[in-house]
Amino acid sequence: MVKVLRLHSLTIKQRKNFKKMAESKGKQQNKSKDTISPGIKTDIQELIDKEEHALRKRLPVKLPKRKNDIYVHRKTDFKAQMLRCQKLLDTGYNMIFIHGIGMAVNRAINLAMQLNELEHGTLEMEVNTSTVELSSDLEANVDDLDPDSRGGINSAVHIRLFRLKKTESSQKQATQ
């Protein structure tokens, strides 16, 4: 049975020794930084002592910042996101972009589907997926510790919603 050590219960000196030992094992076995024991992957927040470090997750570097870009988060209320999208569509924007990263991918897809349903199928969707590089900073709250940073990758979805332009022939067919 393999035991997982929790770093928040260790002293600063023990943590430094543990970090050196983990780095030397990591070089030998070429494991990721978040692996403590072989085969057991841990969440980085379980390893952080909240009194000594603060975890700051940074956004990806290359995010577009237009008024019609909607970034979906898990913490934002779904109805508020829906109202914001509807408001953009009602105020003259014929196209909006919905972005979701990681756990928010499902919510972004759901938002796009709900908007299309509310608009009675008059919206067209283009969906692109990608992988984005993320980084997190460990800011030291104690003077003895150095700041650290961690990187990783995560899945992302980018949905372009746009109104279908009705031509005169399609309008005539709809009225007949």
Automatic annotation (TrEMBL):
Keyword tRNA processing appears in the UniProt entry: yes
Gene3D superfamilies: Alba-like domain
Keywords: Cytoplasm, Nucleus, rRNA processing, tRNA processing
Region described as Disordered: 16-38
Biological process according to GO: rRNA processing; tRNA 5'-leader removal
SUPFAM superfamilies: AlbA-like
Compositional bias per record (Basic and acidic residues), positions renumbered to this chain: 20-34
GO cellular component: nucleolar ribonuclease P complex; ribonuclease MRP complex
GO molecular function: nucleic acid binding
Subcellular location(s) of the protein: Cytoplasmic granule; Nucleus, Nucleolus
Record-linked InterPro entries: Alba-like_dom_sf (IPR036882), Pop7/Rpp20 (IPR014612)
Subunit structure: Component of nuclear RNase P and RNase MRP complexes. RNase P consists of a catalytic RNA moiety and 10 different protein chains; POP1, POP4, POP5, POP7, RPP14, RPP21, RPP25, RPP30, RPP38 and RPP40. Within the RNase P complex, POP1, POP7 and RPP25 form the 'finger' subcomplex, POP5, RPP14, RPP40 and homodimeric RPP30 form the 'palm' subcomplex, and RPP21, POP4 and RPP38 form the 'wrist' subcomplex. All subunits of the RNase P complex interact with the catalytic RNA. Several subunits of RNase P are also part of the RNase MRP complex.
Similarity section: Belongs to the histone-like Alba family.
PANTHER family for this protein: RIBONUCLEASE P PROTEIN SUBUNIT P20 (PTHR15314)
Chain's role: Component of ribonuclease P, a ribonucleoprotein complex that generates mature tRNA molecules by cleaving their 5'-ends. Also a component of the MRP ribonuclease complex, which cleaves pre-rRNA sequences.
Protein name (record): Ribonuclease P protein subunit p20
Organism name: Lingula anatina (Brachiopod)
Gene name for this UniProt entry: LOC106164802
